[in-house]
Write a structure and sequence with these properties.
The protein is built from seven helices and eight strands; from the N terminus they run αβαββαββαβαβαβα. The chain is α/β, with parallel strands linked by helices. The protein has a five-stranded mixed β-barrel with strand order 4-7-6-5-8. The longest helix has 29 residues, at 220-248. The two termini are 26 Å apart.
């Protein structure tokens, strides 16, 4: 295996238990196995790769969902591996912490950019390159949010490798100075590695906690409530947006890289 393509064509099936030809043209990414299970039940299709690191399910309309795990390293891995299939569009359905009073639990964020605080993306492009979604893909997601009567938020997400930072006041103060509206561990990496691999990409984030607010740090009980109340809508909006892109056949890839 002398080329990146040789490696990714071998590794994508190995990581996911799914042959390259069985992936759809459009991809939903998630960190959670329950999203894949709900997708499988919704379309009555089998889950593949259940004994491996990543699980997938594909419906008959050419839409695949992948649980790639948590963190920027896994985010980079899946976007590299997907270069073997080169999907027409990838949408990340993730959760994030809300950093503003207007990004309450249960709100949806459509990020216009992400700050590259994770470090992983520096292996792909220089730090000066902004982490951006594909505008035309986000246009479809925005239309879907409106159809679902969701008053969503837009702004900049901070992506970090730190999972336990809530105790660190200096880190919290820096987030405030940066004027970011949310924090997660994947979005900037997905945007940059997608850009490096010429894959159109976007993110629709569900605010699951408010770590800068009193009593806002995520707990098991809080996560259960968010899952019960908002995850079905989150998944359904992702399915609707990506299906609509496929039905309309509109080109969403940037003209140049």
């Amino acid at each position: 295996m002398l080329s990146k393509q040789d490696i990714t064509r071998d590794w994508l099936p190995r990581y996911t238990g799914t042959d390259i030809g069985d992936f759809g043209d459009y991809i939903l990414l998630t960190n959670f196995d329950n999203y894949v299970k709900k997708f499988s039940e919704r379309f009555n299709q089998p889950i593949r790769g259940e004994e491996g690191p990543m699980q997938t399910c594909t419906n008959t309309e050419g839409l695949t969902i992948i649980n790639f795990g948590i963190g920027s390293a896994n985010a980079a891995t899946i976007m590299d591996l997907l270069s073997a299939r080169h999907p027409r569009g990838v949408l990340f359905l993730g959760k994030c912490g809300g950093l503003k009073g207007s990004t309450e639990i249960g709100r949806f964020i459509l990020p216009i950019a992400a700050i590259r605080g994770e470090g992983t993306s520096n292996d792909y492009l220089p730090p000066e390159v902004p982490a951006l979604p594909s505008f035309k893909l986000h246009k479809f997601v925005s239309n879907t949010l409106i159809e679902f009567e969701q008053e969503y938020r837009t702004g900049v997400i901070y992506t970090t490798n730190r999972r336990v930072w809530e105790w660190d006041q200096d880190f919290s103060d820096r987030l405030t100075r940066l004027s970011t509206i949310g924090i997660d561990m994947e979005t900037a990496t997905l945007f940059i590695v997608g850009h490096a691999n010429k894959i159109s990409r976007g993110a629709l984030l569900l605010v699951s906690d408010m770590p800068l607010m009193p009593d806002g740090i995520k707990t098991q009980e809080m996560d259960r409530r968010v899952t019960a109340k908002f995850v079905d809508m989150h998944l359904e909006m992702g399915i609707r947006a990506m299906t609509e892109i496929g039905e309309k056949g509109e080109e969403i890839k940037h003209f140049g890289y």
